[in-house]
Amino acid sequence: MKNWAGNLEYSSGSVERPESVDELSALVGSAERVKALGSRHCFNDVADTEGVQVVLDRLPGGVEVDSERRVARVSGGITYGDLGLALESQGWALHNMASLPHISVAGAVQTGTHGSGISNRALSSAVKAVEFVRASGEVDRLEEGDGDEFFGSIVGLGALGIVTALELAVEPTYKVRQQVYEDLPWDTVLADYDAVAGDGYSVSLFTDYAGDAVPQVWRKVRLDVESGPAPSSFHGAKPAMRPRHPLPEMDAVNCTQQLDVPGPWLDRLPHFRHEFTPSAGDELQTEYLLPRAHAASAFEAVRALAGKFAPLLFVSEVRTVAADEFWLSPAYRQDSVALHFTWRLMQAEVEAFLPELEAALAPFGARPHWGKVFSVAPADIAALYPRFADFRELVAKRDPEGKFRNRYLDRLLP
């Protein structure tokens, strides 16, 4: 079995699909090594194992909303697309979505995956409680009020147990409009990136870092916040006259509705439609999050390398993420800008270039996304996270025999 991109073949001896938590508990309790496998949208071996891989898509339990507490209990194996449909049918919504709705909730939360928005925290920030199957096979529950261990476990890289269910904060459903603008001057971005990034509920820049302008800006606004017509220009960028794909040569048929047409949150916050099912992605991805205060300097550093990485790059997306309190969240205690790179499927060439890109971003404290390709040394990663030593101790406490370890965690937590 391979991951979504096809650049990694999993090394597990078997893949199991338990149909109950009891069955999963027995499986975990008897296994020497075991890892959960979500939607396979990671580009490295964070979910790999030489033992047993478990897929949670057959676990029972739909989406149960507690309207008084404003939380929804969901199975760890559900995707954000299916969750969104279930919530919308009951009149509820999440605060944010990732660009691709096909990813699993548990996998996205455990790797610190995020959406965009200068005031929007990562997807993990919606978690109010989590249920694990621990190494012993015991089912355990942590709630937000449980303090340190809760904040150390939500972005946990699968090292602390297998997530079977989560309780997520929800809010009443809302509508969103999506607008695309073209040719945003780089001078404007560099002069006041906060003004650009903050001008909308979610703002994404799509660029190759070359030239004098950012080719595309995707702006999403909530109708309950901004009800008037779309601006006739966006900080000097002009409105797109037709639906656009982030890659100019690609048809926008699989992208969510643009041209300022209102629609439900789940059909606008992602960039791609839920009904579109990507079968494979001939690409690699890397991403680095760093303090938003350093955004302009980081852009300049990357633009200086644009000529070198041009043959490798499909497109780069720039987003913002608000700070949170999760120990291993790439946005831990820092309002962040996220520089995401979608590379051509040229693994050797990309891996050879990444050290140079990472060296350019290192002065700004760039933290790599846990589920994407990076080359930052484990010691350097540890230095980026003030609670990293505490996380190491938590893993030793919860999994002393290393049942949930794999090559990835052996490198990260030697």
TrEMBL record:
Cellular-component GO terms for this entry: membrane
Domain FAD-binding PCMH-type span(s) in chain numbering: 8-173
Keyword Membrane: no
Lineage summary: Bacteria, Bacillati, Actinomycetota, Actinomycetes, Micrococcales
Record organism: Sinomonas humi
Keywords (A to Z) from UniProt: Oxidoreductase
Entry keyword Oxidoreductase: yes
GO molecular function: D-arabinono-1,4-lactone oxidase activity; FAD binding; L-gulono-1,4-lactone dehydrogenase activity
PANTHER family with a match to the protein in the record: D-ARABINONO-1,4-LACTONE OXIDASE, L-GULONOLACTONE OXIDASE
Protein name: FAD-binding protein
Top-level taxon of the source organism: Bacteria
Pfam families documented for this protein: ALO, FAD_binding_4
